[in-house]
Amino acid sequence: MKELVIGGVKASELTAQYGTPLYVYDQQKLEANLEAYTTYFKSDVFQTRILYASKAFQTIGMLDLIAEYGLGVDVVSSGELYTALKSTMPVEKIYFHGNNKTTEELRMALETGVKHMVVDNVMELEELAGLAAEYKEKLQVQIRLNVGIEAHTHEYIVTTHIDSKFGIAFGSSDYEACIAILKKSDYLALEGFHVHIGSQIFEMDAWYAAIDKMLGYLQTFSEPLTLNLGGGFGVRYTDADQPMPIKENMAQIVTYLEDKLQETGVKIREVMIEPGRSLVAEAGTTLYEIGYQKKTPNKQYYFVDGGMGDNIRPSLYQADYSCDVANNMTAEKSELVTVAGKYCESGDVLIHDVYLPPVKKGDILAVYSTGAYGYAMSSNYNRNATPAVVFVKDGESRVIVKRQTLADLIRNDVKTEADKHA
Ligand code: LLP
């Protein structure tokens, strides 16, 4: 019976040691992705910088690895900032995003020495200008622009998303107000412009269309500015997804930009990208224990000991995943089944209509490509504990995040007066 091996360790050994459900990352895959980005997103014509969009999977261990490869990090909350500050990531490489940063979050950024802010709207910039003056801190500001392009997995729409909650339109009155605030401020400097048109993008046409628009805007400035192009590169969840390898994708983007810069004469300070999903998704696998089975008139269910609490994406986005019975990889996949979780919701289905072999209670199910927006979007719904996260490499595994305990689940619960006296 052939077994799934991740990073040189058998799935059954991992589940025996750490329990289930378990988020497992193949560290070598993470490193190969980091290597591909850092090697191929490079140019002789312009400076490049890669930020990891840490919302995809943010833990201290992951950020330590990111820092090792010299990337910066994009954070979107005080929680993400706090985690980054506790990792080995240098504070100068932290870029603070978000459309509604609270005053406390802006203060925290200023107090902890964050230098780069990606600003979403006029009110934010106004408040930031006041706070920067109060703290006498100089900040580099990128303005998030809405270029009127929204990318979906296999299509993109131009000029239909002017009402997006993110960013402002170049040349609009909000934009002019932002430029005026920056001109007046002794502490804020315009570093450049940011755009992010969507996630899980396969058709790069949308991305290139956004580049063209951004270059058009930059052309109106005499000084070279930073062009931050965001993330969004697609990954493989099932055979239906055919992403371009990172290497080719980056090489093509760099060539496109080099040609465009030559053609237009636009001068650039730095070009930045912010990959999240494409760095981590395919390196992650979730291991579950299979419990009971049930046949209904039209379906056969395999139940697993996790579900929407550790992976909300199928119920939230109808996202598809592929899977295997990890301790029995060679058996014939003769059963058409639905893999459902243990949560008290009908929508708690991880995978619809997938062929798997017959199973018994205690078998291990591996769901692939769960490394992005899985742990990151996990919840304690039904008071299920968040699984542990382990990194595996060269036959060695190490815990990156410990499994929550039952005591963790009630840690912040306040006992009633009656209980206190009991
Ligand atoms: N930069 C900005 C400003 C972003 O908003 C995002 C993602 C990224 C970079 C990284 O995008 P990526 O390379 O990961 O596609 N929860 C959803 C995805 C939400 C993405 C939000 N922004 C999901 O699970 O599909």
- Level of helix content? 25-40%
Q: Indicate the low-confidence ranges by residue numbers.
A: none
What is the name of the CATH topology of the largest domain?
TIM Barrel
Q: Which percent band covers the strand fraction?
A: 25-35%
The profile of the biggest β sheet is: 9 strands, mixed
EC number: 4.1.1.20
Protein name: Diaminopimelate decarboxylase
Keywords: Amino-acid biosynthesis, Decarboxylase, Lyase, Lysine biosynthesis, Pyridoxal phosphate
InterPro entries: Ala_racemase/Decarboxylase_C (IPR009006), DAP_deCOOHase_LysA (IPR002986), De-COase2_C (IPR022643), De-COase2_N (IPR022644), De-COase2_pyr-phos_BS (IPR022653), Orn/DAP/Arg_de-COase (IPR000183), PLP-binding_barrel (IPR029066)
